[in-house]
From TrEMBL:
Residues 463-472 have a biased composition (Acidic residues). InterPro entries: SET_dom, SET_dom_sf, SETD3_SETD6_MTase. Residues 18-281 form the SET domain. The lineage of its organism: Eukaryota, Fungi, Dikarya, Ascomycota, Pezizomycotina. This is SET domain-containing protein. Residues 473-496 have a biased composition (Basic and acidic residues). Residues 38-58, 460-496 are annotated as: Disordered. It comes from the Eukaryota.
Length: 536
């Protein structure tokens, strides 16, 4: 089953039919960036745009006219999926059989059904009632540059990075979800025919595609939570955004038909032809690079930066101006440790991981936390538990409960410390061998970091990188290749690595190798200081 992608030129007609209004803006192709929102003048605007010329926001205290207004009924979220199930009996059967596990899962199920309806062949029954989303998904790209949609060869570029294991795990999870959908829907004759017995049945690549749409376009709305907002979800992100979205359905005084609007940031002025962008969090904030706060708005806090890996994983690109110089790596116990399973069990969830953050970049402090003398900080509580054994005073025992069950308990120096498994550093800090324990941890860290750096440096000699440079001709070539990715008989793989993929993977490796190298320098300095202290 191919994804019948429709030209973006037809989008204004769909927007008009569905009461989405534009003010002096329109969705257009942007060279090297796909689709995006641009300001237009009165002679080049879309049918749904209001007449005018340049756009200027009012004062921060005055009313601001929306650039885009999307009715509430078009917003896709968990509640909207449930409403659709109330209208369509067939979808209700599918949702009850294969859904109700998460908001994301239900939305993906809805998108998959719209994909099937929109690609039905002559003579095939209509799977479910069509909705505005049936046509809208045709405007969504057949290829989203998220690593889960990269080819096997392209994913080799992630070796040694924090995304190497994360992407593998995500693909495995998506495959398990797809297998579960197949198993549960096959028991329903109607959906067995609509999904699996048709001429071109669903394939794993379609589930990966709808997941990519959701992850790269999902917005967090106060009233509905994770949501997809048609048209606004085509606005590109920027480290210096000039617009933000607002959920007016969450405002008590708003009209009954209030939806989600895109607004120009106060004080901004946009000329015809300029691109309009939002922050990575969608908050109002100011004109500085946007950072997420606990309230979902933006501020200048470093805490709102996204790591380069998260940005690439969620959006398919990295903005070097808006990243947090940090990474997270999985940590595995020693393969020959007889206590490894017991340690992992007591440590519990979330699974052990190493977090490293660079506090200074090119000599400039990027995090102000009172530790500016250190260029890098790291955190991995499990390492302190991982690096001790029975000879040091660690023990595990089974305790019989009053209800007859047994519970694994952890003891340190004959004291039950099960509840402090995630803070074992504190337990060992008062031990007479504390410097030895710390040296063990640092040594293991060095080995982990060196291993990742070595894998990163091995990338390049055995992969063929396509020479796309982002020019119009390259974009057209890429689009032609993308159209063949979702064909019925193709496997979605390219012989060469796309230039845009190679570029983003190189940025990720550069950022993370700098962080790892900085951490290695910090650890080596600590080892040298410890050795010098002991010799004295």
């Amino acid at each position: 089953m191919a994804h019948a992608q429709q030209s973006i030129d037809s989008l204004p007609l769909w927007q008009t039919f569905n009461s989405i209004t534009f003010a002096k803006t329109q969705i257009a192709d942007i060279p090297g960036k796909g689709s995006g929102l641009v300001a237009v003048d009165s002679t080049s605007q879309s049918p749904s745009a209001k007449p005018g010329s340049d756009i200027e926001a009012g004062a921060s205290h005055g009313p601001i006219s929306p650039l885009i207004s999307v009715p509430e009924g078009l917003v896709l979220h968990a509640e909207a999926v449930e409403d659709y199930a109330k209208q369509d009996r067939n979808f209700r059967l599918l949702l009850d059989a294969a859904g109700h596990q998460s908001t994301r899962g239900d939305v993906l199920l809805f998108l998959m059904v719209q994909l099937v309806i929109g690609s039905r062949q002559p003579g095939e029954d209509l799977a479910c009632l069509p909705t505005p989303w049936t046509d809208y998904v045709r405007f969504l790209p057949a290829d989203v540059p998220l690593p889960t949609m990269w080819t096997d060869e392209e994913r080799l570029l992630l070796r040694g990075t924090s995304l190497e294991v994360a992407v593998q795990a995500k693909l495995l999870a998506l495959e398990n979800e797809f297998d579960q959908l197949r198993e549960r829907s096959s028991d329903i004759p109607y959906w067995d025919a609509a999904f699996w017995e048709r001429k071109f049945p669903l394939e794993l690549q379609h589930w990966i595609l709808v997941d990519s749409w959701y992850r790269s376009r999902c917005l967090e709305l106060p009233r509905f939570g994770p949501s997809m907002v048609p048209s606004i979800d085509m606005v590109n992100h920027s480290s210096t955004p000039n617009a933000y979205y607002e959920d007016r359905t969450a405002i008590p005084a708003a009209r009954d038909d209030a939806g989600v609007v895109l607004l120009l940031r106060p004080g901004q002025q946009i000329a015809a032809g300029d691109e309009i962008t939002i922050s990575y969090t969608g908050g109002k904030g100011n004109n500085a690079p946007a950072r997420l706060t606990s309230a979902g708005d933006t501020s200048g806090s470093q805490d709102g930066f996204k790591p380069a890996s998260e940005m690439l994983f969620s959006y398919g690109f990295i903005d070097p101006e808006s990243i947090r110089h940090s990474l997270v790596l999985p940590v595995q116990p020693f393969p020959d440790d007889p206590l490894s399973k017991a340690k992992l069990h007591v440590f519990g969830a979330p699974a052990p991981r190493l977090e490293i953050e660079q506090l200074q970049v090119d000599g400039e402090e990027v995090v102000s936390d009172g530790h500016a003398s250190n260029k890098v900080r790291w955190m991995c509580p499990f390492l302190y538990l991982m690096c001790v054994n029975e000879e040091d005073g660690l023990d595990f025992r089974l305790r019989q409960e009053t209800d007859g069950s047994t519970q694994l308990r952890m003891f340190w120096q004959d004291n039950d410390v099960t509840d402090m498994a995630r803070d074992f550093e504190t337990l060992t800090s008062t031990h007479e061998l504390a410097p030895i324990f710390r040296l063990r941890v640092v040594t293991v860290l060095q080995e982990v970091i060196e291993s990742h750096l070595e894998r990163m440096r091995s990338v390049g000699s055995d992969v063929d990188v396509d020479g796309d440079d982002g020019s119009d001709e390259d974009v057209k070539d890429k689009q032609a290749r993308d159209e063949t990715d979702m064909t019925d008989d193709g496997d979605g793989h390219h012989d060469d690595i796309r230039g845009i993929v190679a570029e983003q993977a190189a940025i990720l490796r550069d950022v993370e190798s700098r962080v790892l190298s900085g951490a290695l320098e910090t650890l080596e300095a600590e080892v040298s200081f410890t050795s010098m202290t002991r010799s004295c």
